[in-house]
Each structure stands twice: as structure tokens, then as C-alpha cells.
Amino acid sequence: MTRRRVLPGLPLALGITLVYVSIIVALPLGALVFKAASLGFADYWAIVSSPRAVASYRVTVLSALGATLFNLVFGLALAWVLVRYRFPGRRLIDALVDLPFALPTAVAGIALTTLFAHNGWFGSFLSNFGIKVAYTPLGIMVAMAFTSIPFIVRTVQPVLEDLDPALEEAAQSLGGSDASIFRRVILPLLTPAILAGVSLSFARCLGEFGAIIFIAGNQPHETEITSLLAFIRLEEYDYQAAAAIASVLLITAFVMLAVTNLLQARALRYTVKN
Amino acid sequence: MSATAKIKRPPRVGDNPLFRTILIAVVLVVTALFIVAPLAVIGFHAFSQGWQLYAATIAHPDTVHAIMLTVVTALIAVPINTAFGVAAAWAITKFDFPGRRLLLVVIEIPFSISPIVAGVAYLFVYGLQGLFGEMLADADIKILFALPGIVLASMFVTAPFVARELIPLMQAQGRDLEEAATSLGASGWRTFFSVTLPNIRWAMLYGVVLCNARVMGEFGAVSVVSGNIRGQTNTLPLHIELLYHDYQTAGSFAAASILALLAVVTLAAKVALERRGAGRRPALAAPVAVLTENAK
After folding, report:
1. Cα Rg for chain B, rounded, in angstroms?
2. How far apart are the first and last CA of chain B?
3. In which domain, by residue range, is B38 found?
4. Residue B2 pLDDT > 50, yes or no?
5. What local confidence, expressed as pLDDT, does residue B54 receive?
6. B210 touches chain A (CB under 8 A)
């Protein structure tokens, strides 16, 4: 393990890295934690457990779950179609999958709101069935689902590409139907990648802001997401409440980061070929 | 080989023609409704009041100022970010030192944090109620509600972009080439520019393209730190919001069409770079996972 260091540049490269990480990442997050911690436990708890804050957690988490569930189904179908079938336009679709990452969230926000508003292309159609999307929790789900589409597709796709056809053939030769082979052979092999994609997608949904605030309606207790509540507290100059609520988001992000890394490391163990 | 394979190969799972057709059709329809339609609606509404209003919106001083501010922000943030990404990748992949994994995790943090949290956090460093607030006010240095704040917040949200493209690639490439170059007498810089850089240039450019798209499109973090001062600290995404809430829908979509165009160009550049091998990371992408795996 102890190999002599031959290459130059460690002090410079590490120096730049540490300075950047300290000033750009660690300092602001440290300041936020410091500010939230300076509140004292009773005040902190009163803010983060206030009915409006709790309602915002519920809206955020439930919408994120709904959006992730949609992406699980659609993302899996999309990855499957892109990998297993050849059809005209496949490459275009493959490129378009990344559009939600490339499109600025504010642009996505006004576009989705316009589509789903009661006089929009989709909204006017859906209103025939009494379905309202814009300015309801459903709208939040739509915005979350849109901005996180690529995650599940992009984690499942490479695993599906590397899947050994011999496994399927063996199952086929044993007389398995397509449905049972998918369920009992293919799905278990995809599961680690799916879980990794799901956790990435869910984390992104929890943190999304730009696309949501346009479509959500932003009614306290009904359609107000947690990041918006932090933003509103800031605009009211209630910095302590903003710090406390932001710290809840920060803790959630750290938990999701740990879960995601764990699942990705696990997924990689299943896919790396020796 | 392919001739026999074609004849002999039994249909794979899901190759049933009916199932195949239905699944492709469903995916195409959902993609059209969910991914293409938002793009189409931007173009439609941008030009709904005609070319003249479109041109007038784009040429409006506030819009021009927003575009310039966005471009200047990207011109500062992206190169610094790239230099950081390269330095971080060089340190992490070419050397063994304690805390390497921790460093990787810290670099990835901004990727999983809500941009609003980033904005709020910056407020508590440079804002009046923040760590350096009074000091900065005494020295009459404006960071928040000015260009430096916008640049800093942009650098936070994009910190991992270049590094996360380079680290898995440079980890896979190993250290042999660089070690050979140095042992033959090349200096560190010479080794980097003649040996390392040619191997990583497309991946680096890939990271730069993604980083740039995110900097130019960042909304949440910038909206907290910029103060939304029209004609002063409004970047293009903030300007879109302002026009939209002013019920200037056509104008807002005209401004949005510029960023939508940027997104399309970004996607095209991405595909072109992927043809050159960039962005094709082995299976899953988490750098932490990559290092974990190599350590075994």
C-alpha cells in the first residue's frame, strides 16, 4: 500500500481544492448550522414543529413520493425501450431524457404551469374530467417528476445494457414465461440500480424549488413546500426561522446523501465486471 | 457471427411484437407530452404575439442587462469551477492521502442540497446578520445583492460538476502515464498539459458544458442572494420570473426561449461529446462508489 509518491503537484492541487471547498461549501453551511444552533433547543423545536412547517414537510414528502413513483414506472419503461428495442427516433429520445437537467428550473416551471393551467393545452383537457393540476399538490408532483426524470433512466440504462443474455436464455429454456422471467430474473438484477435511481430521484424532488413555486399555488398548509417556507421566512426578515427550517432541509439532504451513496456503492458491486 | 446469431437467437424477453409496439408507443406518447410539450409551449408562447414583440422583449434594456449579468456570472464562475474540478481530481486520483473519501463526499454535497438552503447559508456568511456582515458593511464591500454574491452562489451549486466527470475517468486511467512522464524528466505542468490533459479534455469539456448550463439557469440560490433588483441584479432566470409575475406572459416566454435554446444547445453538445467517449462512466457514477470499489 505504501507507494512512494512520484508525481508532483499534491500541495498545489490539494491546496486549491481545500481552499475552494472551505470557502464555497463548508463556510456557508457552517454559518447556517451555527445560526440554527444559536437558537436554543426550545425555540428551534417550536419553529420546526409549527403546524405550518409540519404541513410543508407533509406536502413535500408526499409529492416527492408520488413523483418518484411515477418516475420509477416511466423511467423503467423508458430505459427498457431505449436499451432493448431499435426504432426510428430512439437516439433523439435518448438525448431528450436529459432535457429536464439542461432546462433551467424557472423555465420548466413557467412551461409546466402554462401547460397545466385551466386554459392551457393539458389543463383545459383535464378540466373536462374535473382534474385540476396547476395550483394543487398534483402540480407539485408534476414539477418534481419532470425535473427528476433522468435519474432512474440513467442509473438503470447501463445495467440493462450489460445484462447477460445467457441468464434470460437459461430461464427461457427452462420454460419461463416473459412475465415470470422479468419478475424473477431481470428485476432482481436491476433492483440495486433501481434503488439507487429512486433515492437520487427522491432527493432531487425534496430539494427542487424553481420549477415548483410557479405551479404550486403556494398556499400555506396546502401547497407550500418546505424550501418555499424557508424563503418566505427570509422575506419576512425572520432569519432565525429561515435558518431553522433550512437546517431541516440540510439534515434531510445529508441523510439522503448517505442513503444514496450507500445504495450506489451497493449497486456498483453488483454491476462491476472483473 | 451475426448471421448465425440472427437465425438461431430466440426472441428475448419483451420481444413479443404486440408488447413491444405498445410499450414503445406508450413511452413515445408520454415523452412527447411530458418532455417535448414543455419545450414546445415555450416556443409557442414566445412568438404568440408575433416576432416584433419577441424582438422588443429581447432588446429591452432590462432583458439585455439580465443576459449580460448571466453571461458575466458564467464567465467568472465556470473557469474557476473548472480549475477547482481539475485540481480536485488531480489530488484525489493521483495521490493517496488520508481523508480522500471525506473530500469526495464534501465535493458532492452541493449536488444534494436544495438551492434555497445554499442561498440562505450564504446570507448567514455575508448578509448583515451573518458572520462577516458587519465587517463588510464597515468596509463598504457589497457581496450580497451584487455580482459577487451571485457568482459565489453559482459556484456553490455547481461545485461538483467538473470534478465528478473527471474523478471516475482519472481514477480508471491510473497513474502510470504521468509517472512515466515525470520519471523521464518532464515537469509537473508539462506532464499535466502533454499527458493528462489530452486524455481528459472531452470529459472536462463535458463537465464545463453541464456546469455552464446550470450556472446560467440557476434560480433558487441566486434568487435568495441577488435581491431581485430589476436592471441590476436580475439574472435571466430571475428576469423570467419577474416578467411572469407581472403578467407579461409573452415577454417572459421570450426571455425563457433564450434559456430553452441554451438547453437544446447543451443537449446537442452533450451528445457530441458522448460520441467522443465523455460522460460514459462505468455503470454508476458516484465517485465515492468508484473509489470504494477500487479500494477493494
Report:
1. 24
2. 37
3. 13-46
4. no
5. 92
6. yes
**Cβ atoms of residues A162 and A131 within 8 Å:** no
The shortest CB-CB distance from B103 to any of A12, A17, A265 is to A17
B249/A13 Cβ within 8 A: no
Q: What is the pLDDT of residue A3?
A: 54
CA dihedral A87, B10, A173, B22 (to 10 degrees): 30
Q: Are residues B130 and B249 in the same domain?
A: yes
- B130-172, pLDDT tens digit by residue? 889 889 989 999 898 999 999 999 999 999 999 999 998 999 8
Q: In this structure, is residue B1 part of a structural domain? A: no
Dist. CA B8–CA B254, nearest whole Å: 56
Q: What is the largest CA-CA distance in chain B?
A: 81
Residue pair A212/A135 in contact (Cβ under 8 Å)? The answer is: no
Phi, psi angles (nearest 5°) of residue B248:
-95, 70
Least confident of A41-50, A100-109, B168-177: B168-177
Per DSSP (E only), the strands in B53-101 are none
Cell (9 digits) for B189: 505542468
Cβ separation A99–B267 shorter than 8 A: yes
Written as nine digits, the cell of B113 is: 442540497
pLDDT at position B256, please?
Answer: 96
For B50-76, write each residue's pLDDT tens digit: 899 899 989 999 999 999 999 999 999
In a domain, B5, yes or no: no
> Do B31 and B100 share a domain, yes or no?
no
Which of A145, A192, A267, A256 is closest to B286 using CA atoms? A267
pLDDT computed for residue B16 by the predictor = 87
Nearest by CB to B256, from A7, A16, A107: name it.
Answer: A107
Rounded Cα distance, B113 and A96, in Å = 25
B293 contact residues in A (CB cutoff 8 A): 265, 268-269, 272
C-alpha B288, offset from chain centre: 19
Helix axes B236-245, B249-275, angle to 10 degrees: 150
B160 vs B232, which has greater pLDDT? Answer: B160
Residue B25: inside a domain: yes
- Within a 10 A sphere around the Cβ of A38, how many other Cβ atoms? 11
Cβ-nearest to A24 among B15, B159, B191: B159
Q: Could you tell me the pLDDT band of residue B295, with boundaries at 50, 70 and 90?
A: very low
Q: Which residues of B are less than 8 Å from A249 in CB distance?
A: 113-114, 116-117
Say which of B113, B259, B284 has its CB closest to residue A268.
B284
Q: What is the pTM of this model?
A: 0.91
Our count of domains for chain B comes to: 2
Residues B131 and B151 in one domain: yes
Partners of residue A35 in chain B, C-beta under 8 Å: 124, 130
b/e sequence A7-17, b meaning 16+ C-beta within 10 Å: bbbbeebbebb
Asked if residue B8 belongs to a domain, the reply is no
Is the CB of residue B91 less than 8 Å away from at least one CB of chain A? yes
Residue A206 has pLDDT above 90, yes or no: yes
